[in-house]
Write a structure and sequence with these properties.
nine-stranded mixed sheet; 388 residues; alpha/beta; seven-stranded parallel sheet
Length: 388
């Protein structure tokens, strides 16, 4: 777990650091970043001409693979693309979470965390909203599950789209807030085409809660009828509610994002909402999402900050992941910057053209240099150190 990453263009917003340097990792932890680090017989990765960042932190994704209709493979879909910390957002509820923890979370190589779905079954059946029948939303069972299995849990999750709640209306939010407040944990709220108005939802959120899919283009989005950012959105942001991108299949609009940016409202972080229904487009992977924001005019260092530092702090892992500070976990993503003309598509079918595309070439996990293994690249294997 000793490694020197040599000659890459290092970008670490957590330290305000940017430039061509070496990164030294010893016993799985970052020791230092310096203009030159001697190898002394240790494994080296030549990163000249590449971009070196902290491992990416995805605050919104789904990797309960094979059990829920959303779950993708954690290693091939995320780790191989530079994501070294992943948060599953509500794939499992009280009935299905124990298996998720035992079979997936406890065995995962990346750093993983999860939000518990207030609905007991989680995201089981495509096309059938988990909150349609309130009998599936038992606050007492959610609280009991959370208390018993809290090692990886960081909060509660509720989805409020019309097709998910139908006649339940705002009752699922009532239940999720009751559980979150009882447990004293954050709540992540999925919005987009909600039967309740967005301002009425935002007024109930607390400091530390997450408004996910914040820049969707469906009914009840962040803009009012005149195209202005709603006052309730500014108030929520200023009170400490995170505006999470969470692109997904139907939850990100270039137009909404551009109008918000023009008025000074920026995303709190970048996340993919990667799942089986968007992995082949329009999301693909985290580097593709980062490239979309480059096309929107975001500086590269800001894109990296929103993809690492902000989410790491939000999930309580500041200084541990999402940074290359001394003592941090030795998680690193290495990218090639491809130049050309690239067409990006949002969830509404709108397109934008960009000149740069990030592509992950290497990933380092706890100081171990990994590479794809086998034709399906579903698992990464450690790159053996060549003898000197």
């Amino acid at each position: 777990m000793d490694l020197v990453i040599r000659g890459g263009y290092v970008i670490d917003p957590s330290q305000g650091l940017e430039g061509t340097m070496d990164v030294e990792i010893v016993r799985g932890r970052v020791r230092r970043i310096a203009p030159h680090v001697e190898l002394n017989g240790r494994q080296a990765l030549n990163a000249r001409g590449k971009i070196v960042t902290p491992g990416l932190v995805d605050l919104h994704c789904h990797f309960y693979e094979g059990f829920t209709h959303y779950g993708v493979n954690l290693e091939s879909a995320m780790l191989s693309r530079g994501v070294t910390t992943a948060v599953d957002t509500g794939s499992a509820g009280a009935q299905t979470y124990p298996g998720f923890q035992e079979w997936f979370l406890a065995k995962a190589r990346p750093t993983v965390r999860a939000y518990l779905n207030i609905s007991e079954g989680g995201l089981l059946i495509d096309g059938l909203g988990e909150n349609i029948d309130m009998r599936a939303l038992r606050v007492d069972r959610a609280v009991a599950c959370y208390r018993k299995h809290r090692k990886y849990l960081i909060g509660m999750k509720v989805r409020l789209s019309n097709d998910v709640v139908e006649r339940s209306g705002s009752k699922p939010l009532d239940a999720a807030l009751e559980a979150a407040e009882f447990l004293k944990v954050p709540l992540m709220v999925h919005v987009g085409d909600t039967p309740s108005s967005l301002p009425s939802i935002l007024k109930r959120l607390r400091t530390g809660d997450v408004l996910t899919h914040a820049f969707h283009g469906r009914r009840e989005n962040i803009l009012d009828g005149r195209g202005r950012v709603r006052r309730a959105v500014w108030e929520a942001r200023d009170s400490g509610v995170l505006l999470d991108v969470a692109h997904g299949r139907s939850s990100f609009s270039f137009e909404i994002m551009e109008r918000a940016m023009a008025q000074g409202l920026m995303p709190g972080n970048l996340s993919t909402d990667l799942h089986t229904h968007c992995i082949h487009g329009p999301v693909y992977d985290f580097p593709s999402l980062m490239s979309k924001f480059l096309a929107l005019g975001f500086p590269l260092a800001e894109v990296v900050r929103l993809s690492t530092q902000t989410a790491a702090e939000w999930i309580g892992l500041k200084g541990e992941v999402g940074t290359l500070k001394k003592g941090a976990r030795g998680d690193v993503a290495v990218f090639r910057m491809k130049e050309g003309e690239f067409v990006f598509e949002d969830s509404m079918g709108a397109r934008r053209t960009g000149r740069r595309m990030l592509e992950a070439t290497h990933v380092v996990l706890g100081g171990r240099l990994l590479r794809p293994s086998g034709t399906d690249k579903r698992r990464l294997t450690e790159v053996a150190r060549k003898p000197k």
